[in-house]
Amino acid sequence: MKTPKLTKKIVRDELALSHAITAVLTNAKNRRKLTKDILRWQRRLQGAVDSEAWRVYLHLEEVVNERASYEQDVLVPWAFRQGRRYERRRS
Q1: Could you tell me if 51 and 26 are in contact, meaning their C-beta atoms sit under 8 angstroms apart?
Q2: Tell me: the pLDDT tens digits for 3-20?
Q3: Backbone torsions φ then ψ of 86, nearest 5 degrees
């Protein structure tokens, strides 16, 4: 997936912004290694706890991920607006 350039049009469209964020993260170098590490530790935790504790953990992870996604949705447009203020104007 090719990483798009961040434009006003993308920032204003929540779905397009979500796709752009996904592309950036998918292309990030260390992401695959971190994902493998997370899966390895999740498997280890699942084997160490009972099924109720595992369900609680999965729900916690879901809420944490939902918050992180929301934070990205708030932060990216804000950062884009801040950066636009400092663009050089062509003379």
Answers
A1: no
A2: 888 888 998 898 998 899
A3: -105, 10
